[in-house]
Amino acid sequence: MQYTNLGRTGLKVARLCLGTMNFGPKTSEPDACAIMDRALELGLNFWDTADVYGWKKGEGLTEQIIGRYFAQGGGRREKVVLATKLYGDMGD
Fold first, then answer.
1. Catalytic annotation on 53?
2. Are 92 and 55 in contact (CB under 8 A)?
3. What is the mean pLDDT of residues 14-20?
4. CB count, 10 Å around CB of 6?
5. Read out DSSP for 4-59?
6. What are phi and psi of 62, to 5 degrees?
7. Per-residue pLDDT, 38
8. What's the rounded Cα separation, in Å, for the pair 23 and 29?
9. N or C: which end of the chain has fewer CB within 10 A?
10. How confident is the model at residue 63 (pLDDT cuts 50, 70, 90)?
11. How much is the CA Rg of the chain, to the nearest whole Å?
């Protein structure tokens, strides 16, 4: 895996980013967890998500899946630089 500096933060992130947009609507939670496990095995530490991912307004399904994955422990959260967006319309 190739890494680069994230601006001037001192963080090293993979040059590739794991997009999680389909976790939930197209990718089951067990499959999403397997993908995230494999990403960590490969050193892919830069992941992208958003509050509106999951395709159902107001649910944030993708972020829920990622949250449950991190909650399993094992240092998962500490290994990932998580990029997110917050301007999506979550409700009326």
1. yes
2. no
3. 97
4. 13
5. EE-TTS--EEESS-EE-TTBTTTB-HHHHHHHHHHHHHTT--EEE--TTTTSSTTT
6. -60, -45
7. 98
8. 7
9. C
10. very high
11. 13
pLDDT at 23: 95
Inter-axis angle of helices 61-71 and 29-41, nearest 10 = 60
Tens-digit pLDDT profile for residues 24-59? 999 999 999 999 999 999 999 999 998 888 877 778
Q: What are the tokens at 1?
A: 């895996």
Sheet strand arrangement including 18-19: 18-19, 46-48, 81-83
Which residue type is seen at 80?
A: V
CA separation for the pair 1, 50 (Å, rounded): 24
